[in-house]
């Protein structure tokens, strides 16, 4: 009878995503310990995103006070986007090699350094210099890595969707808090508050997140040994991951599907003033409306959709909804019309973002999910880097309707591409 017990444990071992927590949380391995770490990760992410959106409010005011013109501010934003773009894959490789706790701690310490440098920026060169640590600021992808490691593929969509809830809370709290602190106490105050917040996140991550959240690797396949022996800065390793079956197709879908909406959102500050005729306060209310919608859709709606429908069905739904959004944007003429369009825009944006991340993590070994999420996270800074040029050209030459035509054209092409490639090729693939 005693010989049957080890064999039963051996059969259950690969299914226990919480096993790495055994040495870190009360010496036990159970679902509650993993759920506790996930909840802590959500809490830290809310604080981190609040600090991040406080930064987005601080930098324009500080740049204006230092005499930086619109062109110079564009260069500042471009440098930030390029640093984030380069840092995403490196950050992911660092997480795979040294663990999610080390990666998150690095991210929050880098964020602290950013705010410290912002608080002492008394000249334009110092302001530009304060952007350099942002190459390691990747709190959101870091949280996604922890959740990916601690959840099964069946529950991953719902868990990752709730990251969007944290993101939305960060938008609302960070934007309003940053503006209030700047108005009441001056521009240095939010810098110090955000610095304290980032240091608190780093301390919480170091104490509460296990050193290694990945399940132990079984065996030593060539693919796994290559990943572990490669340097954090190895671009050959990144290219190897992109060449894995299905990865490039899914990555292409994510880039193209998010690009039209991303370009429009980058230009929204100008569109809200020139096209809708909104004042700064009204534009802020509209952004809060978008943040609340994202919280509701990613926190409450997305999990239910992923539990009922397959990944391919949801991808197709996202593309079809985006086509409808494109048509509506062509016909849009008032802010009321935009408010009617936004829920569908956020729905399609959220679905494709979460589903493609899940498919990408399923397409690589468990040892490389961090690197894959880091590569995926680089899409946002890529859009932020290219978006102002593309969006400015479209808006000046063709007006707001051009964003709708771009949305429609890209998503119609993606619809045919997904049908032809039958993505995902393997439904429900487990790691």
UniProtKB/TrEMBL annotation:
Name by which UniProt lists this protein: Organic cation transporter-like protein 2
Species in which this protein is naturally found: Varanus komodoensis
Designated gene of the protein: SLC22A18
Listed Gene3D superfamilies: MFS general substrate transporter like domains (1.20.1250.20)
Subcellular location: Apical cell membrane
Bilayer topology term: Multi-pass membrane protein
Pfam families given in the database record: MFS_1
Composition skew (Basic and acidic residues), residue ranges: 7-22
PANTHER family associated with the record: SOLUTE CARRIER FAMILY 22 MEMBER 18 (PTHR24002)
CDD domains (alphabetical): MFS_SLC22A18
Main location: membrane
